[in-house]
């Protein structure tokens, strides 16, 4: 296939499955957690600790999911993942005790590694080609509405169903909606596989040689460090954003300011889709990373001034939105299409592993150090990601590749 972008039908199909995947396997959890806690007699913090443990399990499996997508095709792997996700949600609904529920939750997040962004990006690259970055941006724009859709949908369902029945509805969605769509994607990819393989064979040797001369292993490790640092900072703030702004003396105004985070994420993807087509992804990674410490510094210097809090939330939303894109496009630009699934799997693993620890680590920092020293610590960590991606840009010649 010679097209630079994946077909619109494939992007929209993946968009639907990503909204359902993120909505059922992640965003719904916060709404159902109180009822799950009451059903099993566990404190809510234990229920959320189980989620963190399951996210770690998912991060460990992510590179394997990527390698399987490389070998068998992302569409087939996502079809297997849909079956696994449906089964895991069914097991969670039927769990007789908290320990069985934790086991089902682990299975849910392992299945998530086979159906969410990292594997969906591989599906786009396998069909869309080397210049599939714009298609990845389109997908993140559509999937960015997962929380917008599933927070109210889950709330409405839970008003008429108990949490076990809600999980059964979600299991049915993976079977009735996601599985057929992933099966269609697998069939579409098979029809273009020969042309894609030939394209890779022609394009990759020169790409690989250039990467090797720049220090392939060094770039790979820097990429993991950058994503891990960003994942830690983002999840630390996202979980604590509302109580953090309240603790800084903003009260209800802080809650209002935090509502701008979602629109800022969508805005960053729209702006990148319209104006970022010729921008090297190394540069986009640096910009994404710089927005996080910039937002934190704005908060530290202006608190409790409301406009400063607004600037903080908007910059964090912009950085988070771009980070979702870079997670798929940077490995493609750095390492090419051959073995792309494994590379994006490792990037996802690094980000998700650190993100799983972030809420507890930042909570401990707040208790032990106080608000301002904890935020300063996050600024330092966020500069690790800036330094990592900037170094990659230098090694790749990214600093001399600005569009004319």
Describe this structure in words.
- This protein folds into 2 domains: 8-203, MFS general substrate transporter like domains (Growth Hormone, Chain: A), CATH 1.20.1250; 214-400, MFS general substrate transporter like domains (Growth Hormone, Chain: A), CATH 1.20.1250.20.
- Residues 398-404 have low confidence and may be disordered.
- By secondary structure, the chain is mainly alpha-helical.
- It has helices spanning 8-27, 29-40, 44-72, 74-94, 98-115, 117-128, 133-143, 146-160, 163-213, 216-247, 252-258, 261-275, 281-302, 306-335, 340-369, 371-395.
- It is globular and about 55 Å long.
Question: What does the secondary structure layout of this molecule look like, with pairings?
Answer:
Elements: H1 8-27, H2 29-40, H3 44-72, H4 74-94, H5 98-115, H6 117-128, H7 133-143, H8 146-160, H9 163-213, H10 216-247, H11 252-258, H12 261-275, H13 281-302, H14 306-335, H15 340-369, H16 371-395
What is shown here, in short?
This protein is an all-alpha fold. It contains 16 helices and no strands. The chain starts with 7 loop residues before the first helix and ends in a 9-residue tail after the last helix.
Q: What is the 3D form?
A: globular
CATH level-two architecture of the largest domain = Up-down Bundle
- The gyration radius over C-alpha positions equals 21 Å
Classified in CATH, the superfamily of the largest domain is MFS general substrate transporter like domains
CATH topology of the largest domain: Growth Hormone, Chain: A
Cα separation of the termini: 29 Å
Range of strand content: under 5%
Unreliable spans are 398-404
| Largest pleated sheet | none
Counted by DSSP, the helix tally is 16
The first-level CATH class name of the largest domain = Mainly Alpha
- Average pLDDT reading: 84
Name the helix and strand elements from N-terminus to C-terminus, one letter apiece.
HHHHHHHHHHHHHHHH
Task: Tally the beta strands.
Answer: 0
The tally of domains stands at: 2
How would you classify the helix and strand content by structural class? mainly alpha
Helix content: over 70%
